[in-house]
Specification:
Blueprint lengths: L17 H19 L1 H10 L3 H23 L13 E3 L4 H31 L2 H4 L5 H24 L8 H19 L8 H16 L33 H26 L8 H21 L4 E3 L1 H10 L4 H15 L2 H8 L3 H23 L6 H16 L11 H7 L2 H11 L1
Antiparallel strand pairs: 1-2
Helix pairs in contact: 1-8, 1-12, 2-3, 2-4, 3-10, 3-12, 3-13, 4-6, 4-9, 4-10, 6-9, 6-14, 6-15, 6-17, 7-8, 7-14, 8-14, 9-10, 9-11, 15-17
Length: about 425
Amino acid sequence: MCAKKKTILYSASQTPPKGPLFFSSLQHMLLIVSLGMALPISVGRTVGLDLSLSTSLLSAALFSMGITGILQTIPGRFIGSGYQSMSVSDSAALAACIMAAQIGGIPLVLGMTIFSGVLKGILGSFTFKMRKLFPPEVTGTMIFILGISTLPTGLKYFLGTTLPEFDPMHLLVAVLTLLFMLSCTLFIKVLKPYTALAGIVFGFVVSAIAGVFDPASFLQLGEQPVVALPVYKELAYDFNLQAVIPFLIVTIAAIVDNIGDYSTTQSADNPDFEKPDWKSIERGIRASAAGTFIAGLIGGPMQSTATTNIGIASASGITSRKVAYLSSGMLIAASFLPMISGALSLIPTPVLGAVLMYSICYIMAGGFSALATRSLDDKRIFVIFLSISFAVSTLIPGLYSFLPEKVSSVICSPMVMGVGILLIT
């Protein structure tokens, strides 16, 4: 029996009626906000930005996601996939960005983001030729290791180990927020697409009740201008060889992720889809690279395709490019309103920890999904689990103390060690 073909209500080139167009666009915009702010917020917390600087950093993030979404969607000859493709801050780059922030602050994060954009644009133009170098067992392991790399930051925020002393209320808020998000995912289906955003709102309320967050902090937003350019206020750029390998790894991982996402957008828009259009994929990756480059210039985070939004588009049957244009336009409009960015920057630390732990689960699940497409023979078992073992080993304090400090500072991270072993074996 032939499988029933999916129903496409409004394809890439069609324009939905005003009602479906607006509400579909709003849904995508809210989803991007809920998923895309963890990276810039975490980087800002790492370097201790004040409210004014945090607000400008998040405004740049909103603008970056909006402009990149438009670039990824346009049907250009050199840039743009031609399919509905929203952009989001690349959560898989969190560990690399935090490492850069710890070494050289925001200037190094922005410099390495520009580096990643240039590198992605070059490598992304040869994805068809490079595809055999990254079979599912390699890409799946890379993505899983990226999840491991993010765990230390997520757990520190979740458990409250960054505080001077243990606060049980901090942990209670984190646990309740995570449980609420899990409930949204498993039981409250209407909230599932907005789980992270709903978790943030819930976390704010619980934090206020528990005394972890002072609602009076919102009064600070009155000091922000009504309208401002979405550019980080203290723009500066730096480059450090110590950060090259981690950013090289996350850039390659982003390209691999983009290939899968752009293939999915093509499938979602075409009931008779058989094989991917590699020219469209390469144009889309170049668009994502351009967006990352622009983001680095103005103070935004690394950009990548929004996998969850692609799933929403496929499920709804509305794959029109107009939806991406309007939704991205909403993000750009919001980026000029500092009060919106300022409110996001006030997210309590335990709530941010819960959101990060929720996101890490899905990053790791993406890796497992890729691994599940292959049967595990002896060689694959050795390659996959040896790499993961060495990645985890870098999280054990003092294990590599026998190495010179300059060497350990470069290789003793889950990303560098794990992916290095993966590619060598």
